Amino acid sequence: MSQRIFWFLAAIAAVVLFGTVSPVSAAEEAVRRGAVTNLPLPRYVSLKVDEAFVRRGPSKTHRIDWVLTRRNMPLMITAEYENWRRVQDRDGVGGWVHYALLTGARTVLVEEDMLALHDRPQDNAPIAAQLQVGVIAKLGDCTVDWCHLEAGGYDGWAHKTALWGVDPDEIRE
C-alpha cells in the first residue's frame, strides 16, 4: 500500500473515531454557532413587540401554538433557520418566531420574590428597591455573582442566581 493511501485512510479513520482531523480545544468545541448569524447557541434575546406568534415550524405555513404577549420578555434562542429563530421561555416551552420580532437588548426575569436591588454588588450594601417575582428588568453589567438591573425607575445590583435570562458564568461589562 502506498504511503499516500495509508495517510488518506488514517485521516478517514480519525474523522470516524474522533469527528475531526484537526485538534480543537474543549472551549471551541463547547460553543455551537448559529448557521445563519454565526452567533453562539444557545443565547438570550428579548421580545421586541407586544404580540408574537410562536409557530410549530420555521415558516408562516406552520401552525401557531401560542402567542407571546409580554414585550421585553427574555427568551433563549436554541436554533436558527433562515429568518426564523427557535426560542424557549423560562419554562422550557419553545417554538419558532420570526427574527424581526426579537431584539438583542437583554432583559431578565426575576425568579425570587422581593429580590433586593443593592446600591453595590455586596450583600451588606444598602437596598435601593425590591422586585417582585415575574418582573422583567433591563440587564446591565454582570460580575461572577451579581448583575446590575433597571426596572420600574429603580436600578441596583441583584444576585445572578435569582434571575432567568443570564448564564451563571456570564460576565458583562
Radius of gyration: 21 Å
Classification by helices and strands:
mainly beta
Note the gap between the termini. 58 Å
* Number of domain units: 3
Described by strand count, sense and barrel closure, the largest sheet is: 5 strands, antiparallel
Query: CATH architecture of the largest domain, please?
Result: Roll
User: What's the CATH superfamily of the largest domain, by name?
Assistant: SH3 Domains
Q: Any idea of the CATH class of the largest domain?
A: Mainly Beta
Record field, number of beta strands: 16
**Portion of residues within helices:** 10-25%
Enter the CATH topology name of the largest domain: SH3 type barrels
Distinct helical segment count: 2
As residue ranges, the low-confidence spans are 1-26
Element pattern in H and E? HHEEEEEEEEEEEEEEEE
State which percent range the strand residues make up. Answer: 35-45%
The coarse overall form would be: elongated
Average pLDDT score: 88
Descriptive account of the structure:
It contains two helices and 16 strands. It is mostly beta strands. The protein has three domains: about 1-25, no CATH class; about 30-105, SH3 type barrels (Roll), CATH 2.30.30; about 110-165, SH3 Domains (SH3 type barrels, Roll). Strand 13 and strand 14 (about 145-150) form a beta hairpin. The protein is elongated and about 55 Å long.
